[in-house]
Amino acid sequence: MVQLNLDNRSLAQTYDVLSDNQFENGIKLIELLDVKPGDSVLDIGCGTGRLGFHVLEKIGPTGRFVGIDPLQERVRIANEKNRHANALFGTGVGEDLSFLESSSVDVVYLSAVFHWIIDKEAALRDIFRILKPDGRVGITTGAKELAHVACFRKVTDRVLQRPPYNGAVNLDDYATARHGVTSTQLVQLLLGAGFSVQSFEIRKNTRKYQSGSDIVDFLESSTFGNYLNHVPEKLRGRARRDIEAEFEATRGPDGIPFTGYTVFAVAEKLPEK
Q1: 109 three-class SS
Q2: In the chain, how many H helices and how many E strands?
Q3: Secondary element (H or E) of residue 74
Q4: Angle at CA 267, nearest 5°, toward 139 and 60?
Q5: Where do runs of H (alpha helix) occur along 84-204?
Q6: Are 2 and 179 in contact (CB under 8 A)?
Q7: Over the stretch 118-167, which tens digit does the pLDDT of each residue have?
Q8: Confidence (pTM)
Q9: What is d(CA 167, CA 161) in angstroms, rounded to the nearest whole number?
Q10: Which of 95, 159, 197, 246 has the greatest CB tally within 10 Å of its CB?
Q11: Domains, the chain
């Protein structure tokens, strides 16, 4: 089970520093959503607010921004950085948007968040409700069918298939895989909630890290402490060191390559005929 209580100030601060890959994917998603000055925007899973502050520059002072996240430390950091009178950051979950009126929001996005949502049908129904006619929802997430070819899973699983971890770890119990969906399932969920899918693509992205420790720090902070919670507690420290070393073994002349595959989906709430 994914645990929210594993997060802390240190993990939140680390994520704020090391989340460039997800931030850059988020910027691409905002471009696809065509966010404009004056838009009303909801950020589900806003984290420390990095992408939210980028969106606030897009919507300007006439827009309205709300960011929610279940992780209190991350919301606290977002509020500490916030200097925008038209922005509100608070704790909340995607399955309960009852604090927003129906047909009141232009754009909703979930950047690197959808795989954490447990009741996806409920979340999409509520997103559909709060969106204005012609409103858009944007999602970036992993495609479950590609999980095992992503760099972090290949390296992590390679280590955990060896002694002393093999037999003690279920590789398919990795945190982000528990509630992930395939690309086909994501399209079906959007259509089932009443949306018209406007664009859908899977993009390969690669960035370079300077150390295996930085990669594991990112993985731990982006999963708010859940990265290795499928490993018995007595083995986690050793597993972290072994995984760092495994990443170091892939080092090239300009750093350690880190490749993944991200789904970009944009859907629209069409006006009623």
Answers
A1: strand
A2: 9, 7
A3: helix 72-81
A4: 70
A5: 120-130, 151-160, 183-192
A6: yes
A7: 999 999 999 999 999 999 999 999 999 998 899 999 999 999 999 999 99
A8: 0.96
A9: 8
A10: 159
A11: 4-268 (3.40.50.150)
